[in-house]
Each structure stands twice: as structure tokens, then as C-alpha cells.
Inverse folding.
């Protein structure tokens, strides 16, 4: 599917970008060129030295800058858009910065992709975009709406899809590396609520989701990978068990601003137009044309008996099963 093609990974020096580039560089894909677009020259230099691949080309720029992203997109076949401001506190403190990167930046990428006749764009989103309560989630929710609105242009040759996923084990600044850092520094582990649950995905899960969306995505589709979840307390216990640590100090601090007890990947309203594909869900777009009647004179089925797809409604794993998943994720040194 990538044979002799040029792909662009926007935000390519992040956790997903580096892992995805490593996957696509495998011989079976026969990729022609991978362009890495990001604003961090230090991470680009580190990645260049680490990969040492002539197929990697680095483009320095910012999604907020139309000219820099347009330069990187020229002659590209496919785009994987992973650039975003992701930290909840940072986006709470500076919400306009989240707007500039997550919304305006995405608009720049998509408009340039359409102008340059890119075949397909996969935009990466998050469970925080579902029923959002913080600036980061709100900006990503609007990013999704923006991406879907671009699909209404019937003259466009560009297929635009979205992937939505939760916590990726071991990704930068996610719960697992933060937890391990506190243990390494012998600091108390901080928890917010014993009842808090989170979806669990490995980086391979995230990559497989994106590749599935790339293979089968129709314009406007949102893809979700079915996954398990865990309580934060069970996650902590499993890490301590794997590390063979007993009686480690744990401090409860209460739910933080902009934080949910459970995360949701599919809303009740979205489930009525969701297709079950064994290991994946595909949410079909709710608008396919510029027609206001869908908002005023037509309706949909009764939603009373439908439950959303949340981290509290899927299989919640613990004990040895959770430890096995953590070990398989290769994010904990045993």
C-alpha cells in the first residue's frame, strides 16, 4: 500500500510519529520517502541520528504556518497528521494556543492537502474529544468537526479520515512513564480517585488502528479500536508487582481540574451510526451534504436504551492479565 509512495508525518518527532516511521520503513512496505514535519530541530536531529535512513527527509516548520506546511506537502501521496498540543494543564492555561495548533493548524494541513491533491489524510484524535470538559478535548473535538466539514467539498480528491484512541502505554508524558519516573525518584505515587478508569492501548495497537483506517477509510469516517481498560489503582499495583516493590507510599490528591473519572471513545449519539468491524468500530459521518433539513425537519431513532462506549463499560482488566499487557507493551524494564 505504500510501495513507491511518499508519505508525510505531521508532528513526526512525537511518540506516535517515530514509532510509525519505524514501522513503515520495514522492507515489506517498500516506501519511497517519509517526510517528518515538526518544529523541534533537536528532536529531528536525534531522530536523524537514531534512524540513519536515507528515506527519511526532515522538514522544519509549524502547522500554524501555512507556507511551511505547504512546502512539506508538495508531491506527497498520503499524510498522517499527529501534531497537536496534548497536555491538559498547558491547554487550560493557554487555550488560544490549543486553538492555533489543534484547530487552525489542522485546517492548514487539510487545506494544503486538498490543494495539492493528496490522496488520503489520517487525522489523529483522542478520547478527550468525546464529551470534552477541558480545553485540550474541546480543541480536538472541533478538529474532528473541521476535518469532517472538509469532506463536504465534492470537488476534493482527498479522502479525510480520523482515528480516535485513548491512553497509549509508554507514550510521552502519559500515565505510565510519569508513574515510573516517580518510582525511580523515590517519590510518592499520586492518585486522584480509586474509581478512575482509563483505556489501555499499546503503541502497536495505535499503529494498527491508523493502518486499518488507511486501508479501509472512506471520507469522513472515524475509526476506533476496541480495547480494554483498567482502574488507575490496579495499574499502579501491577507496576509495583512487576517491579517487585512492596509497601510503596501512595498519596490521594483528588480529581484535578479538567479531569474525568472515566473516558469515552464513542458517544451514545454516535453509536447509532457506528459499524462494528470485529476489532474496530467505524463511525460514519453525520453530515454528507450542505443541507439544513437534517438539523430542523428530520430526526433519528430513540437513544434511551443505548449506552456510550466508555472505559467503564468495556472489559476492565487487573492482576496478572494487566501485568501481562504492561510487559507486552515493552514500556517497563523488569
Amino acid at each position: 500500500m505504500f510501495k513507491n509512495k511518499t508519505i508525510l508525518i505531521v508532528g513526526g518527532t512525537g511518540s506516535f510519529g517515530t514509532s510509525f516511521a519505524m514501522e513503515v520503513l520495514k522492507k515489506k512496505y517498500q516506501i519511497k520517502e517519509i517526510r517528518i514535519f515538526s518544529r523541534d530541530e533537536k528532536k529531528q536531529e536525534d531522530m536523524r541520528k537514531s534512524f540513519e535512513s536515507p528515506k527519511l527527509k526532515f522538514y522544519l516548520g509549524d502547522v500554524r504556518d501555512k507556507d511551511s506546511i505547504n512546502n512539506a506537502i508538495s508531491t506527497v501521496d498520503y499524510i498522517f497528521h499527529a501534531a497537536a498540543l496534548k497536555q491538559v494543564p498547558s491547554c487550560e492555561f493557554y487555550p488560544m494556543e490549543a486553538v492555533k495548533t489543534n484547530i487552525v493548524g489542522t485546517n492548514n494541513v487539510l487545506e494544503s492537502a486538498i490543494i495539492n491533491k493528496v490522496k488520503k489524510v489520517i487525522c489523529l484524535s483522542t478520547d478527550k474529544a468525546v464529551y470534552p470538559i477541558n480545553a485540550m478535548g474541546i480543541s480536538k473535538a472541533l478538529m474532528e468537526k473541521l476535518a469532517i466539514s472538509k469532506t463536504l467539498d465534492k470537488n476534493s480528491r482527498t479522502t479525510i479520515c480520523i482515528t480516535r484512541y485513548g491512553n497509549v502505554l509508554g507514550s510521552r508524558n502519559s500515565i505510565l512513564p510519569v508513574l515510573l519516573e516517580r518510582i525511580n525518584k523515590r517519590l510518592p505515587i499520586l492518585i486522584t480517585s480509586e474509581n478512575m478508569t482509563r483505556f489501555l492501548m499499546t503503541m502497536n495497537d495505535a499503529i494498527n488502528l491508523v493502518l486499518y483506517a488507511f486501508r479501509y477509510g472512506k471520507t469522513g469516517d472515524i475509526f476506533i479500536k476496541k480495547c480494554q481498560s483498567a482502574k488507575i489503582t490496579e495499574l499502579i499495583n501491577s507496576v509495583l508487582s512487576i517491579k517487585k516493590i512492596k509497601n510503596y507510599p501512595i498519596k490521594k490528591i483528588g480529581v484535578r481540574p479538567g479531569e474525568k473519572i472515566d473516558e469515552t471513545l464513542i458517544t451514545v449519539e454516535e453509536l447509532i451510526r457506528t459499524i462494528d468491524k470485529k476489532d474496530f468500530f467505524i463511525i460514519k459521518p453525520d453530515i454528507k451534504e450542505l443541507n439544513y433539513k437534517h438539523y430542523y425537519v428530520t430526526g433519528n431513532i430513540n437513544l434511551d436504551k443505548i449506552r456510550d462506549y466508555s472505559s467503564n463499560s468495556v472489559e476492565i482488566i487487573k492482576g496478572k492479565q494487566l501485568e501481562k499487557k504492561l510487559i507486552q507493551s515493552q514500556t517497563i524494564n523488569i
